[in-house]
Design a protein that fits this description.
369 residues, alpha/beta, pyruvate-formate lyase- activating enzyme, Arc Repressor Mutant, subunit A, 20% strand, binds iron/sulfur cluster
Length: 369
């Protein structure tokens, strides 16, 4: 049963130095052609939307669309999806795109959640990583969201940026404590190949932060958010009360979803498909009536473990055995070592990472497969 709908908007006004997502800077004509293709693809899959529980418009930067293009997209979604069944409808936005008109448009179309790409409140670091907003923009955006009917929001933060000082991290945490957003995604910087930041580091124009300091920052964030009643429920995600990201939980619980747009992935009927990663190929295919995402290898038993162990509650071993006919540590004997060294814990029917194991989870999982 397909429960999630993801729609990819690949446009950004500026390219951040660390980013390796599927995104581009484009003029109005390309944006219009792309949205026209999206509307056609949305309609093509419309008989899959009956059981949708979540919709997520991500990017790129969806808020970089003009209000009229965004209105066309939201209107189309509302006309195709039984919205009253949808429990969460999120859009990603950059702080400098949040205006009264933008918020009004979201309210008119009944969106329930905004995910705001803050990253840091340090104007120095924002400039270093190539973001277009300032701390003032963030504060103004939050005032507008607080005054709106949008019931929930997430703030995206990042730590471990080159040259990030303890004072700067402390200021970010103080900002979060003061504003107490319902949900926080706090990512550790990952230096990706072929990014401007990686190029600058390789050419010694910039120095990556020391690994031990990054680990110290990570523990500081975790402890501070815990003291402020945030529940860490996934490697990088924290919620107050029950403000969990329902859409992301679909991914981590290996539920079925459909992705619309350039480079968007879908997963249903025990298979995974990905749309063309090049915008011109995507648009041309859709306008020619070709709906032909590429099937990617998909090992359900492995994915269930990989995605499920991202959550602090881990996976149900009973459910694993029911779905795949075998216990996870029998199928993957490498898990045994980490059950013995305490990085993994098995209690009742749950298998999950210990606090230390969660911090080393990438390494542990890489070793297994
Ligand atoms: S705004 Fe987001 S998607 Fe766009 S370049 Fe920056 S990090 Fe990448």
């Amino acid at each position: 049963m397909i429960k999630g709908l993801y729609i990819h908007i690949p446009f950004c006004d500026k390219i951040c130095t660390y980013c390796d997502f599927a995104k581009l800077v484009a003029n109005d004509e390309w944006k219009e052609r792309y949205i026209n293709a999206l509307l056609i693809e949305l309609e093509h899959y419309s008989d899959h939307y009956e059981h949708l529980e979540t919709i997520y418009i991500g990017g790129g930067t969806p808020s970089s669309l003009s209000l009229s293009l965004l209105d066309q997209l939201l209107t189309k979604i509302e006309s195709l999806v039984p919205i009253t069944n949808v429990k969460e409808w999120t859009i990603e936005a950059n702080p400098d795109d949040i205006s009264e008109d933008f918020i009004t448009l979201l309210e008119q179309h009944h969106l329930t959640r905004i995910s705001l790409g803050v990253q840091t409140t340090s104007d120095r670091l924002l400039q270093l990583i190539g973001r277009g907003h300032t701390k003032q923009d963030i504060k103004r955006a939050l005032r507008l969201i607080d005054a709106s009917k949008i019931s929930s929001y997430n703030l995206d933060f990042i730590y471990g940026l080159p040259t990030q000082t303890k004072d700067e991290l402390e200021a970010d945490l103080a900002f979060l404590i003061l504003n107490t957003p319902p949900h926080i995604s706090y990512y550790s910087l990952i230096l990706e190949e072929n990014t401007k930041m990686q190029f600058e580091i390789t050419n010694e124009r910039l120095e990556a932060l020391d690994e031990d300091l990054v680990a110290e920052y990570g523990e500081w964030i975790e402890d501070t958010l815990k003291e402020c009643n945030y529940h860490k429920y996934e490697i990088s995600n924290y919620a107050r009360g029950n403000a969990f990201s329902k859409h992301n939980l679909l991914y981590w619980n290996l539920e079925e979803y459909i992705g619309i747009g350039m480079a968007a992935a879908s997963q249903f009927d025990n298979a995974r498909f990905v749309n063309p990663r090049k915008i011109s190929t995507y648009i041309n295919q859709i306008h020619s009536g070709i709906f032909d995402p590429i099937e990617e290898p998909f090992d359900e038993a492995m994915e269930f473990l990989l995605m499920g162990l991202r959550k602090t509650e881990g996976i149900s071993t009973l459910e694993y055995r029911k779905r795949f006919g075998i216990l996870p540590w029998i199928r993957y004997p490498g898990l045994q070592k980490h059950l013995e060294n305490g990085l993994l814990i098995q209690k009742k029917d749950r298998l999950y990472f210990s606090t230390k194991g969660m911090r080393l989870s990438n390494q542990v999982l890489l070793e297994l497969f």
